Amino acid sequence: MVKKDARPLYIIHGEKVHSLDDFYDEMARLTGSLTGKGPDSRNLNALLDVLRGGLAAHEYMEPITLIWSNFHLGSKFSGKADVLECIAEAENVTFRKENFECQGG
Fold first, then answer.
1. Which of 30, 31, 89, 93 is geometrically suited to a Cys-Cys bond with 10, CB 3.0 to 4.6 A?
2. All domains of the chain in start order, with CATH
3. What one-character-per-residue DSSP string does 53-96 give?
């Protein structure tokens, strides 16, 4: 987590996300939560709880910024649309997708 202007900033590395499990691995790396495996610890309700805060990385309902870098590189994994809906449901989250392309030279 990076704090910019006193607001926590989390950057998901899209090039590492090719499945729902990969996404949860990235969130675990960023927040220290969702570290367990299986449906009891990795599900949309748990994700929403982590995004809203109070569990580890930031305070409950503290405004945060979540950036999904290289969003275009991740495959359209099963559940991606549900993840995006869950992110949108977290009222304290400002979400951005950013695409960075390497330039040849």
1. 30
2. 2-98 (3.30.370.10)
3. -SSSSS-TT--EEEEEETGGGS---TTHHHHHHHHHH-TTEEEE
Residue type, 43: N
pLDDT in tens, the chain (105 residues): 655 567 899 999 999 999 999 999 999 899 888 766 656 678 999 999 999 998 878 999 999 999 999 998 877 888 899 999 999 999 999 999 988 655 444
Nearest to 63 by CA among 50, 48, 52: 52
The pTM assigned to this predicted structure is 0.83
**Cβ 57 vs Cβ 33: under 8 Å:** yes
Angle between helices 80-89 and 44-52 (to 10 degrees): 30
